[in-house]
Design brief:
The protein folds into two domains: 2-105 and 285-318, Rossmann fold (3-Layer(aba) Sandwich); 108-271, Rossmann fold (3-Layer(aba) Sandwich). The chain is elongated, with a radius of gyration of 23 Å. It has 13 helices and ten strands. The chain is 45% helix and 14% strand. By secondary structure, the chain is α/β, with parallel strands linked by helices. A six-stranded parallel beta sheet has the order 7-6-5-8-9-10, with helices on both faces. Helix 6 (137-149) links the parallel strand 5 (122-127) and strand 6 (157-162).
Length: 319
């Protein structure tokens, strides 16, 4: 594959994007064969930047192998692009080359075109997969407390879930639903098409984003919910990249340990104390494309690259 890339495309720079991070091995090889810089685009951490808990989900041998491969790619890379400032800070401690921060983004053309049509009932929605540390129990308990404070109202409020529940979370998920006995106040749509998921988010009063235990990652769903103009509530630790980004773009973030604050946010939405603000929109694709274009142009124009050598030869031929 690497030989084909180098031969068929004759690139000025090779960009590999992961996960899967094995793409960086192909990118490194292709760049070497073509004699051009290799830029690694890390949408999630490879090994550096993972929490200790996450890294231990693989064997010691696997971790050792992945760390060796990561180090090898880091050392030869012309630059690394990451999508959170937190990850850039972490990688900077082990990599001496240029690191560029280009955040996750949103293609606005993929969003629903129809106008907002909120549900008749007050609706909290979560769309996504429950896996790793993503735990929906606290939001469900907060919703139930809100329901009880409104005399168990089932006609006026609803919690909607759509997505997949990972096998390790299924028992806990079913147990909390049985304990709370939410009845018709809870709806599980299961897996739904992306268009339906976005419309479900657009029609909700609060869109939940779960990012517990993800110190260096930011879910792209954060930007979708904000751009759809919904009250967005992110559940993540205060020192995480997601918490900082949520505050920056103007949506609410709550530490998972702060249950009372979670309940308070739900109450604010019902009583009208949660005032909507226009979100920062520097995460849209045109802005991000422009940022990445400048980075690549800077790398290509460096002295000694194939591009600058070709330009020099062309100028010499024209003299």
């Amino acid at each position: 594959m690497a030989k084909n890339v180098a031969r068929d495309f004759r690139p000025d720079v090779v960009v590999s994007s992961g996960p899967p991070h094995s793409s960086h091995l192909v990118g490194r090889a292709a760049a070497g064969l073509a004699g051009v810089p290799h830029v690694m685009d890390l949408r999630d951490p490879w090994i550096t930047g993972l929490t200790e808990e996450t890294s231990k989900m693989t064997s010691a041998l696997s971790r050792k192998t992945l760390r060796f491969l990561e180090k090898k790619c880091f050392r030869s890379a012309g630059a690394i692009v990451v999508n959170t400032d937190r990850l850039s800070e972490t990688i900077r401690s082990v990599y001496e080359g240029p690191i560029h921060f280009v955040r996750n983004g949103l293609d606005i053309e993929c969003l629903p075109s129809k106008p907002n049509t909120p549900n008749e009932r007050f609706t909290i929605s979560y769309v996504g997969t429950l896996y790793y540390n993503r735990d929906i129990a606290a939001p469900l308990r907060a919703f139930n407390k809100l329901r009880q404070s409104n005399n168990g109202a089932t006609d006026s409020m609803r919690f909607e879930f759509a997505g997949k529940v990972d096998g390790s979370h299924l028992n806990d998920f079913n147990a909390v639903l049985k304990e709370l006995n939410l009845g018709e106040s809870f709806s599980n749509r299961g897996l739904v098409p992306r268009t339906e998921a976005l419309e479900m988010t657009q029609e909700s009063d609060i869109a939940l984003v779960l990012a517990q235990g993800q110190a260096s990652q930011i879910p792209a769903k954060l930007y979708e919910c904000a751009q759809l103009g919904r009250r967005t509530l992110v559940l993540t630790e205060k020192d995480s990249a997601t918490y900082r980004e949520a505050e920056r773009i103007g949506v609410r973030a709550v530490d998972p340990a702060n249950f009372e604050k979670l309940v308070e946010c739900f109450e604010d939405a019902i009583t009208g104390n949660w005032k909507m603000t226009e979100p920062v929109s520097d995460f849209l694709y045109p802005t991000i494309a422009n940022d990445l274009s400048k980075i690549l142009e800077g790398i290509i124009e460096k002295p000694g690259t194939r591009h600058t050598r070709r330009v020099a030869l062309a100028r010499t031929a024209n003299e």
